[in-house]
Amino acid sequence: MAEFINKNGSLGPLHIKEFRLHIIARFFYTMALRMVTTVVAYKLFQLTQSSFSIGLVGLSEFIPVFSLALYAGHVIDRTDKRTMLLNNILLYGLCVIALIIITSSYIESNISTLMLEVSFYLIIFFSGITRAFAGPTSSAIISQLVPRNVLHYAANISSSTWLSASIAGHASAGFFIAWFGVHGTFYIVLAYVLVSALVFSSVKRKPAAVTDLSQKTWASVKEGLKYIQSNKILLGAISLDLFAVLFGGAVALIPEFAIKILQVGPIGFGWLNAATDMGAVTMIILVTVFPMKKNQGKILMTAVAGFGITILVFGLSTIFWISFFALLIGGMLDGISVIIRNTVLQLTTPDNMRGRVASVNSMFVNSSNELGQFESGVTARLMGASPAVLFGGTMTLIVVIISWFKAPSLRKFEY
């Protein structure tokens, strides 16, 4: 294996101790994030029997992530990224403790269902504040952990880690709900957060990339936005992923599909939740070991179009295994999109702007998961679950067609 790594170079960043620590910490932290999303969605659907409540969870998280993203980028570029990320991991742990409290049998038996529902939304709102800073910091710090000549490999490994943790979080959450219940599962989530914080505390402090601290906040924010606007390839990749995730958010409706349409229990629900990420991490591992050599722009657009088609199949299916494989293949195609976009982000961003660019990326792409969850909840309430998913898949295909003709620089992009 060592001989292969030396020859290929794609796994070279794993030889760097601090990068390994970051990857391990990110794995446990991301697993905790995904488990919280899965367990809260499952619990709320049990309480309300409505996918609209799941949409409100997405909105509760989207508001702080979107609102604070630009300011977060300004702060990240002027702060020791190691300390920033560690503090936000610990703050997220406080949110998990709050979830443990409100799902205890004493609290559930002494407050109304409405109050319990509102409590979930409030906690997720505060967790969104921590994510507004933690997500971009996790991306921005990579360039301080590895040499630039292996930065694109480090970006691929980081993406693989994130998606592997998503698989573990989604799938294991379903199993843990079945074995330990919702309340017991949140204790496991807290343990993951604490492990992440403990591992990451061994990373040394990292100096801020920006040394001129006299620049005003708004001027700093505008500088980051202007850079992204001028970089047509980066802007195109972010925009394409934004709308694809926004309209292709079938995963948000999985609780309703699992319970009402496919009629599977918590374990089946967990596998459906994990399917997209299983496909994505499989593809990312393959592309990390065997990197794409050319035509990355065309491959990106083709993959997003294929993702839209798998969403349509999922919306039409009433058979568990068809639904599972539709999400699995969709995840493989989404994995290609993740690799290309993250590589563009790492290779085209100056060190002194990584926090701001990563925050804008988080603002328009990562937060679109939450906004897409809200969009899916609203359309499901207006149309029904299956029509809502079909609408999302159709809109994804339309976005790709428009991008093919309106973003020629992205279509022709290679690295």
Number of strands: 0
Number of helices: 16
Strand content: under 5%
| Contiguous runs where pLDDT drops below 50 for at least 5 residues | 1-8
CATH topology (level 3) name: Growth Hormone, Chain: A
Shape: globular
- Share of residues in helices: over 70%
Q: Radius of gyration, rounded?
A: 20 Å
User: How would you classify the quaternary structure?
Assistant: single chain
Structural class by secondary-structure content: mainly alpha
Largest sheet: none
CATH class: Mainly Alpha
How far apart lie the N and C ends?
26 Å
If you average the pLDDT, what whole number results?
Answer: 79
Name the CATH architecture. Up-down Bundle
CATH superfamily: MFS general substrate transporter like domains
List its traits.
415 residues, Growth Hormone, Chain: A, globular, single chain, mainly alpha
Structural commentary:
- By secondary structure, this protein is mainly alpha-helical.
- It has one domain (8-205, 215-411): Up-down Bundle (Growth Hormone, Chain: A).
- The chain has 16 helices and no strands.
Describe this structure in a few short sentences.
This protein has 415 residues and is mostly helical.
